[in-house]
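Forum: Protein Structure Q&A
Topic: Joint prediction for protein chains with partners

I've read a bunch of threads here and the consensus seems to be that you should model interacting components together rather than docking separate models afterwards. I'd like to see that in practice. Below is the full input, 885 residues plus whatever partners are listed. Could one of the regulars post the assembled result?
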Amino acid sequence: MSKHGASALATHHKLRLTPSVVALVLCIPALAPLLVIAYASFSPDTEVWKHLSQYVLPEVTANTLLLVAQVALLSGVLGTALAWLTAMCEFPGRRFFEWALLLPLAVPAYVLAFVAVGFLDYAGPFQTLLREVFGSSSWFPRIRSLGGAAFVLSLATYPYVYLLARSAFLTQGRRALEAAQSLGYGRVAASWKVALPMARPWIFAGIALTAMETLADFGAVYIFNVRTFTTAIYGAWFGMRSVNTALQLAGVLMLFVLAAFVLERRSRANANFALARDVSRESPRLVLSPVMRRFACAFAATVFAIAFVLPVIQLAIWAYENIGDLDVRYIGFVSRSLLLAASAAAVIVAAGFVLAYMLRRFPSKLSHAVIRVATMGYAIPGTVLAVGVLVPIIYLNNTFQDLLRDWFGDGAPLLMFQGTLVAVLLGYMARFLAVGFNPIESGLQRITRSVDEAAISLGVSGTALLRQIHLPLLRTSLATAATLVFVDVMKEMPITLIVRPFGWDTLAIRVFEMTAEGEWQRAALPAVAIVLAGLIPVALLTRRGAHVA
Amino acid sequence: MRFQRLKAVFVAALFVAGLNGCSERSNEIVVYSARNEQLIKPVFDRYTAETSVQIRFVTDDAGPLIERLAAEGENSPADVLLTVDAGELWHAAERGLLRPIDSEILAANIPETLRDPQNRWFGFSVRARTIVYSTERVKPEELSTYEALAEPRWKGKLCLRTSKKVYNQSLVAMLIAQHGEEQTEKIVRGWVENLATDVFSNDTQVMEAIAAGQCDVGIVNTYYYGRLLRDKPDIPVKIFWPDQEGSGVHVNVSGAGVTAHAPRAEAAKKFLEWLSQDESQAMFAGLNLEYPANPNVKRDPIVEAWGEFKANPINVAKAGELQAAAVKLMDRAGYR
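Posted by a regular:
Agreed with the consensus. Here's the joint model:
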């Protein structure tokens, strides 16, 4: 290493404290709610726990594990297969499906669930038709079941895996496959032994997101009548009036997630996924046989139809029937949704980037653990996390308020931090840090250490290294993270509900207003608007993606 | 230079944050509402038009709103808590979040069974949870009480909504108040035995299942029936008022109370008094096809068509008191 490089590294060493502190501070909004939840564990309500462990927990634990496993498997397979086809192969409609397969992301899982149950349940149009034709529909599988919920949640969440796996396949390039083939592997073997394992961090990061989303889901499992950990949490809170028990159950959920993190970490302890890549010399896509091309097209079309086209048609019909609800206020709902989603995407991606970057430059077990814990908010049921967000914010507010009272007496201005956009964004940080962090962390793994070293030896270091080398290489990952956060925030309800300023209603809040008393058809209008607005970042991302690919 | 700018930003942020509360005017009240915006905003607008008192509000589920109120303590900007279930109000009162209101108008307009015995909250609309049946397969003479739906003759013919919904928790709580836990558990077990299919996530689905022939009888809130009737006037499902010789139809309320630390308690009290009177009562209940709590107020024509019924005279506060017991009982009985 040159003298220059050594001195550059030494400078970094001195700076060590600053990025760690920055990272910790960035994690505070995400950690504070978890601390509230952890704190509640100190005062268990033994009577409620006794009841739960006897009548509720065995069933919901089994259901939750089964559900998460099924969703992880199905969305993992769907997302990876579709990503593989659109990134590596050529088939009719490939250019269209590339971005179209992302669209289901914009349909909230609870909306998809409601549409599916409404359409496919006994009283729905499909089984009614079956009864008219065959006289009976009793052979039709039960829709409101664990399997049904797993199916719908998989369709709603596979885009996480798709998006991440796709960016993995795109960045690793087809040249890796070529290299494997030149070493004597057949095409299929090359895919299995090289391309897939090399995309593992991305696929796992995507599956982790689907699994966490499934753990936190209440809307869809409620509609499918599946009793999970989340429904037990809500039952303890709203039914047995024990908020503490609800928080404690959420704490148990956190332990599950933590255990999963540790296992996943171990499974790829010494693997290296970095890759030297040269986009300018990309080799052509794999050419499929005519049968396989048709199959690929049909497969993509089926997933797209079931996960997006059919539900959106149903929503559009309902929305049209309630078009009277559409008034000038929708301009406000839409612009507020967009503003919140965009600012959350900016803040969370920036935070996710700083954290991931810091972990790469200054890896330490402690900061890794802290960041991992900070991303767990994504696995916690929204309403519980909302309380976790609320408590520290109100605590701050009241502290400041008391201070002002001391200074100004009765004439003191009144504060209300809860009920500000800053509070809303802090809440989103707590919820969606994982969504911003995971894609960027996996993206950074693609950049070899030798790239850093080479750059440093050439005198490029510090922020220049970041600006000139890392950021350009991370563009796809950053765009992926931003899209995911944007769309997730568009759909988010509980945190927005409890900390929004007076009158700050968004599209998701319109959906809440309608569904809270079961007016699902009327919820279709804001739901369609969410889907349409969700198209914006997807369109932007595809442009960028096309550019990179 | 940079620090100066940072400081300015900080002060500005604090200012913006403070703005929310700074604008405290005597001419407004703040409501935390678990009643949906489309059901409550028109009422607020009417009040503002009549009195020029502005109403600012946030909607959410009652659970989070109550937690927010509790955390805010004496700094809370809220004057009124509005919910769609007596149990929630009972719970809020139990935690000291509501204050007693001494009002002759409210006492005169709201029947005793529909308000807190200590006047910390008042029901403003009545939600009747009653039996619905298929007009094609059931004669009304076959029906009698909630309890009778547990009899073996209804095996495979009953549809219920999930026990997770507070309306069913209140219903079972009221049964406990009448029959005690042991007897009630038998009844609930009987219901579970009779279920035609898994429980549903909302009342509309229960009625659609009856119409489709999946089951013959169910238990729903009447306004769900009213809404369904508006969309599908020919639906072969009708309402039956149970237990008219006995204790009567289970009712719940959507109601409100003035918060313990309300900054404008007097204005809040005036609002509630206004809400208990003729036109506002008709509007409050009518927007969702519920029954006005004030017995002298005219009902919506759709609601009127369902006829008179005798309501259970036990105070709705019991639903809150016995809710946890009801939830545990339903867990034991396998009512999901």
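The CA atoms of residues 233 and 239 of chain A lie 10 Å apart.
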